[in-house]
Every structure is written in structure tokens, then in C-alpha cells.
TrEMBL record:
It comes from Streptomyces levis. This is Inositol-3-phosphate synthase. Belongs to the myo-inositol 1-phosphate synthase family. Residues 216-320 form the Myo-inositol-1-phosphate synthase GAPDH-like domain. PANTHER family: MYO-INOSITOL-1 PHOSPHATE SYNTHASE. It comes from the Bacteria.
């Protein structure tokens, strides 16, 4: 099942690590550590194999993938020497990266049509069974409400009139769905989460999922918060301080862009605990950290007879190395959903997100159980249809 993965932000750190990682797995150079879809319980499912994945994308950056991969190897994000071993695969993916259309200004429909044409050309050139568009670009501020967001007819009319009614992430989602591609938003940006785009996905019989990949601090929260709730310990405060550099740090130094991220990071606590807690999430740009990030969380909670206690944890990691295997997982699972005829939001992929579409479940174990049952059910349905 030849599957295209079209990366929005294709020359960024996450995208580059994803392409290098897929090539390394395809060649058997390294194990699939961190890839959920490679776990034993999923191995007999009709997911697209790593050798069946073809990469392309859009970006405003022109730095070749090979050079970007070399830079990541120098900083320890990629194993030394690995970019040279997969140079041919990097060159092939680089040849399929297109300049991002001019998405600012009033000509939103023109830009959407250009994206759709690139996606269609990509699918036809490589004889792909399907394409999954994955947004791994920089976080954008929340979308400003517009009447055209309410329904597909209103959206078409506004775009045909030359109005710029969609933020960039939603414009890519629109173009993906218009051209018959599934859509994954790994960022907290708007993406497909507008009523008009939900309607479009259902009409076209296409799955979409997101938002904001759960890679570090929030992953730990989604394990610890259910522990407090199930142990009947009342959390009084939960304060998280995030230090990060690189492109994410620079982007999130802008309060408007950071608002999308802090909102999604806060959802798990109230969703699991059932009540708001003091503290909040604080993000600081530390350029010196580069591709690495640190999160320090301080939790106060109340036990039997009102006794106050506390817990602290520190999470340190490389965001690209944490995110890239999940991008591969999401593309593979979403391709399976598309093949099985799933249309609209896919809440069963909430395991991978801070702010999952279509579900209020935030506990990691419950999300994992839902993912396994759903994926195996899809696998049985696809295999049964193939046998008939």
C-alpha cells in the first residue's frame, strides 16, 4: 500500500528527523524504538510498511534536507554518519518539496488550489494509493472567528469572493481534503478543526485527526493525573515551566502563538481531574538549548485528613526525536483509517495528542486501550473485505 506522507514544514527538524528515521528503518539500520505502530499488538495489521512510504512537502525554507540532517547530526539529534547512509532517500524526498504557496493576503483560494495541485501531482507521479498530509510547521495563533467557518457553502462562497478566511494551517487542511488526502495536525494550530472543514471531510469520506502531538511533559501528565484521580488524592496546584530553544522556542516566544500551545497543554488536567487547578504552564525561549527541551513540574496535592504533600518531576528530551516516530505512527494509522472508509474526526488517535479531536478522554491508558481496539477492528474489517 504505497502511501505518501506530505509534510507541511518539510525542512524543519521534526520533518527531517522523520524522513531520516523512515529511511533508516526501511534499510534495517536501526530498530523502530519510539514507534507505537511497530509494537507487537499492531504488527499483523495491514498498515503501510516503512518501505512503502514516500515523502514530499511544502516549506518556505530552501535548505536542502541533506544539509539540515547534517546539522541535526552535529547536535546529537541524529546518529553521527546516519545522514550519509540515507543520502539517496533524502535526495528523493528533497526533490518532492515544493515552495509554500503565498498563503497571506486575500488570494486564499489561489493558494489552496496550488497546494491541491501539488498534492495531486505527487500522488500521480508515484502511483500512490493514498496521501496523508501532516502539518509539522510552526505553531500559529488561534484563528479569528469568521462566519465562513460555520459551513462548507459559506466557506466556498467566501473563498470564491477572494476573501482570506482561513489561517494557513486550515488552508492546508482544506486543500488536503479537496484533493482527496487525509489530514493530521501535529501542531496546536487550527488545522481541520472548523465546522466547514469537518463537513468537507465527511462529504469526501476522509479522516482527519489532531491536534498538538503529545511528546513530553503532557505525556507524563496524562499518566500521573489519572493516578491522582484513581487514588482519590485531590490535586491543588500543578505548575509547569518549559524551557526550549530552536524554532519552537523562537515561535512560542510570541504570546499569540504560545496561547495555542498553553491552552492545549492545560486540557489534560481538568479533563482527567474534573476540576481546575492553580499553576498553569509557562514557556520560556532559551536559544542555547537548541533542539533540546526541559520541563519542570511542581505538584501539590491533598491526602487523607487534609494533609498537604507535593511531587516534582523533570523531563528532558529532544523534541524532534520524540515527535518523528509519532508522525510515522499517525501517517500509518490514518492511512489505514482512510483505507477502511473512516470519515471525519478520528478520536481513537487521541493517544497521540494533547487536544484530541472528537473525545474528552485524556488518560493515557484509556487512550491506548481505545487505540488498540480500534486499530485491530479496522484491520479485521480491511482484511475481511480483501478476502471477499
Amino acid at each position: 500500500m504505497r502511501t505518501g506522507i506530505w509534510l507541511v514544514g518539510a525542512r524543519g527538524s521534526v520533518a527531517t528527523t522523520t524522513v531520516v528515521g523512515a529511511a533508516a528503518l526501511r534499510a534495517g539500520l536501526l530498530p523502530a524504538t519510539g514507534c507505537v505502530s511497530a509494537l507487537e499488538c499492531f504488527r499483523d495489521l495491514p498498515l503501510p510498511g516503512f518501505e512503502e512510504l514516500v515523502f514530499g512537502g511544502h516549506d518556505v525554507v530552501t535548505t536542502p534536507l541533506a544539509k539540515r540532517a547534517g546539522q541535526l547530526a552535529e547536535t546529537g539529534v541524529l546518529p553521527s554518519g546516519l545522514p550519509d547512509l540515507v543520502a539517496a532517500e533524502l535526495a528523493a524526498a528533497d526533490a518532492e518539496i515544493r515552495p509554500a504557496p503565498h498563503t497571506q493576503g486575500p488570494a486564499g483560494r489561489t493558494a489552496a488550489d496550488a497546494v491541491a495541485a501539488d498534492l495531486t501531482g505527487f500522488r500521480e507521479r508515484h502511483g500512490l494509493d493514498r496521501v496523508v498530509v501532516v502539518n509539522v510547521s510552526s505553531t500559529q495563533p488561534p484563528a479569528r472567528p469568521h462566519p465562513a467557518h460555520a459551513g462548507l457553502g459559506l466557506l466556498y462562497a467566501a473563498l470564491d469572493d477572494g476573501e482570506r478566511v482561513l489561517p494557513d494551517s486550515a488552508l492546508y487542511a482544506f486543500a488536503a481534503l479537496e484533493s482527496g488526502c487525509a489530514f493530521v495536525d501535529f501542531t496546536p494550530s487550527t488545522g481541520a478543526r472548523l465546522p466547514a472543514l469537518d463537513e468537507l471531510a465527511r462529504r469526501r469520506g476522509l479522516p482527519y485527526t489532531g491536534s498538538d502531538g503529545k511528546t513530553g511533559e503532557t505525556l507524563v501528565k496524562s499518566v500521573l493525573a489519572p493516578m491522582f484521580a484513581q487514588r482519590a488524592l485531590r490535586v491543588r496546584s500543578w505548575s509547569g515551566t518549559n524551557l526550549l530553544g530552536g524554532g519552537d522556542g523562537a515561535t512560542l516566544a510570541d504570546p499569540a502563538s504560545a496561547a495555542s500551545k498553553t491552552d492545549s497543554k492545560a486540557l489534560v488536567l481538568e479533563g482527567v481531574l474534573g476540576h481546575p487547578v492553580d499553576g498553569g504552564v509557562h514557556i520560556h525561549n532559551v536559544p542555547e538549548l537548541g533542539e533540546w527541551k526541559t520541563a519542570w513540574d511542581h505538584i501539590t496535592f491533598e491526602g487523607f485528613l487534609g494533609v498537604r504533600m507535593s511531587l516534582q518531576f523533570t523531563w528532558q528530551g529532544c523534541d524532534s526525536a520524540l515527535a518523528a516516530p509519532l508522525v510515522l505512527d499517525l501517517a500509518r494509522f490514518t492511512a489505514l483509517a482512510h483505507r477502511a472508509g473512516v470519515a471525519g474526526p478520528v478520536p481513537q488517535l487521541g493517544f497521540f495528542f494533547k487536544d484530541p479531536v472528537g473525545t474528552g478522554e485524556h488518560g493515557l491508558q484509556a487512550q491506548y486501550t481505545l487505540l488498540v481496539d480500534w486499530a485491530r477492528g479496522l484491520g479485521d474489517a480491511v482484511s475481511g473485505a480483501r478476502e471477499r
